[in-house]
Amino acid sequence: MSDFSIIIRSIVSRPVSTIVTILMVSISVGLLIVLLTLKGSGQQAFARGSGNIDLLLSRDASPMVAVLNAVFHANAPRNSIGWDEYEAYVGSFPWAWTVPIQQGDNYRGHPVIATTTDFYEKFSPVPGEPWSMAQGRWFDKPLEIVLGSEAARRTRLKPGARLMLTHGTHEHGGHVHDEYLFEVVGILEPTGSAHDRAMFTDLIGSWMLHAVDRREAEGIHVTVAPEDLVMEDKLITGILLGLPKRSGRGVSSALQQQFDRLRRDTSITVAQPAAQIDRLFTIVGNLDRIFIAMSIVVLLSSGAAIMLALYNSMDLRRRQIAVLRVLGCSRGRVFSLVLTESAVIGLLGAIGGLVLSVGGGMIAAWMLQQRLGLVIPMNPDPGQILLVVSCTIALAAIAGIVPAVAAYRTDITRNLRPIG
To answer: How confident is the model at residue 415 (pLDDT cuts 50, 70, 90)?
Structure first.
């Protein structure tokens, strides 16, 4: 009988303890691979939404909150920027492009972004990848709305459908703007960013909605046309700014200068989306390290489980080992058999972990896409996988040293006495 056959029979002879041990190793390996993969791919996914924005202006409490609200649609800013202020900021520097945005409405929980045609003509959610339409066209007049791919999938709306917006960022509890119906005119291709779950409409149409609300609060019940809008109605919540760049350069030489200049205005919050995303992942990175450390602890615990499972089985296997010794199996060979058995258990656990990481990664990516609209590709680094698998097998082999020594020291005479 070959050594491999002996090892397989030994593993199969203890099905319950072997399966439990392999499952422990699989869970720890799978969790470790998923966390390492998400850590690498997550930052790239978050960077997709900010696209070619160099600076962001808002009246949020902090630059981080401004980026989360304007780029990832986490919430609607509480304070607004007047249109006259917007024009002043636009005229303060020869920007490559400027885009005003207004947030504060939703449709079935999907955030609605009111903006101008410059939003889709100048801003790209992913650098070098402009917007692409799956159906229809972009809005070009008030009361037209375009759906992100995820928003269209969830609401099942098609071009030509009409809808009413709700005030606020949540589906329930807000005032329904039933004065005007918006017509769906287009559906976007997926961008792999938070914009996929949003809807986009013309800024003037949004101003009309809130102008009616303001007049009703004053006891005036009239409909509002674009020409009826006054400066008090023309409010926005954010300004996306693009700086002129030289050909072949990804960052403008004027970025830091303009950032410092705008920060002197204490009435506005200035953010560099790229820098805030890096800062966000610095914060999240601390949590990543904690979770990865926990996974490693679980992996070490599974190594201890392998050692205990094999060591506890020694009492039942001493007679078997003694018989092998009588049949000519040397102490060294017995030692290597137990050590190899431990490594095989580690290998099986690592393979199971790879399978679990595929399923777990798909579930994690799906949940992030459903909740945040972020597409995180689960493309694990082959080098990291090889390292995790190698360390798992090595750990299992180390865990097998103690039971292997116990097998090595098995006394033939004592363990071959007649039973009973």
So the answer is: low
